[in-house]
Design goal:
CATH class of the largest domain: Alpha Beta
CATH architecture of the largest domain: 3-Layer(aba) Sandwich
Number of domains: 2
Structural class: alpha+beta
Order of helices and strands: EEEEEEEEEEEEEHHHEHEHHEHEH
Radius of gyration: 20 Å
Helix content: 10-25%
Length: 336
């Protein structure tokens, strides 16, 4: 399998140690970050930070907004931070040798942000890990992993927050299979031209896409991210509810025409920004024909999503559904 436009992101180097003892690790990031005063601030789902060291201890320094932030060492979960504010988490007594530490944002926060302040160790810092393949996942709640770990479909807002784990959504699942770095630019409830039930008509995912933090208008700065694969899953919110009186479209036919035109523009913009990248567009049965038309107009690949069990929060994909979608994408990528 040959995938074009593969590149490595330069590791971030934080400007100052967050604690007086220990050595600061260089880090590798996945997602969009804003460097501010020696910290890395983030808001999009699925963001992560990784570091490596030789030794027996590591300390994680962070400032949490309203997220669940999982700390893992050598691929095993150690602690999940759920309380807002600054935290210093120490991991000691590790077996002497080389270890990897990782911080994952596993919940969605449509407003606000959290900050990574650094990894420190009394051992020896090592170069941060990086992978050759980069995959970007653009979408809505399905890409976020909205309520994917929920044992019930009936969820209130707090339950949705607490049972969302983006690391178990189809994008990160696929990326791990392919040993790829990933970036998730997704926002629940938003579409290409129309959001769920016609809400917030002045906004849509293409409007939010350039932002460094989803709830803030400032654009992301260039950071060397050049994905070899881009997966877009947008349309569920455009078509899941009927057009209401007073919306911008006279009927569903007008909505579908606008969706196709705007989606073509969005895909072409991604092609200009990432020449040579493989682009796949996902679509369920009720709007797959529109997705296929956009794919044909832009020369990219359409991937039809079958009926899913939808036992996550509020009729969203389950963990099994996410694995099914990862299977479909993996097969589509391998066919080239």
């Amino acid at each position: 399998m040959r995938l074009a436009a593969l590149a490595l992101l330069a590791p971030f180097a934080l400007s100052a140690a967050p604690a007086p003892e220990g050595k600061l690790l260089a880090v590798h990031t996945g997602g969009r970050f804003v460097s501010e005063g020696g910290a890395l601030r983030f808001g999009w789902p699925g963001a992560y930070v990784e570091g490596r060291f030789r030794g027996t201890d590591v300390t994680v320094h962070l400032r949490n907004g309203s997220d669940f932030l999982r700390i893992s060492v050598d691929g095993k979960p150690f602690q999940t931070i759920v309380t807002p504010g600054e935290s210093v988490v120490k991991v000691a007594g590790l077996k002497p040798g080389v270890h990897a530490v990782r911080l994952d944002k596993i919940t969605e926060s449509q407003a606000g942000s959290s900050s990574f302040l650094g990894f420190t160790t009394h051992g020896r810092p090592l170069p941060a890990p990086a992978r050759k393949l980069q995959i970007e996942f653009i979408g809505d709640s399905h890409t976020v992993g909205y309520g994917d770990t929920s044992p019930t479909r009936d969820c209130k807002a707090q339950q949705v927050h607490d049972t969302t784990d983006t690391s178990l959504a189809f994008g990160p699942v696929l990326a791990r299979r392919l040993d790829a770095d990933y970036r998730v630019i997704a926002y629940s409830g938003y579409g290409v031209v129309r959001n769920y039930a016609g809400k917030f008509p002045a906004e849509n995912l293409p409007l939010l896409y350039p932002r460094a933090i989803p709830g803030e208008p400032a654009p992301a700065r260039a950071d060397g991210w050049k994905p070899g694969v881009i997966v877009i899953n947008l349309g569920t919110n455009d078509f899941s509810t009927p057009v209401h009186p007073g919306e911008a479209w006279a009927d569903e036919a007008a909505l579908r025409a606008d969706y196709r035109a705007r989606y073509i523009d969005f895909v072409k913009a991604r092609q200009r920004s990432n020449p040579g990248a493989r682009i796949l567009l996902m679509g369920a049965e009720n709007f797959h024909a529109d997705v296929a038309a956009v794919a044909a107009a832009t020369g990219v690949t359409a991937v039809k999503v079958p009926a899913l069990e939808m036992t996550g929060c509020n009729w969203h994909p389950s963990l099994k559904d996410h694995r099914t979608m990862a299977d479909l994408l993996q097969a589509a990528i391998a066919r080239r």
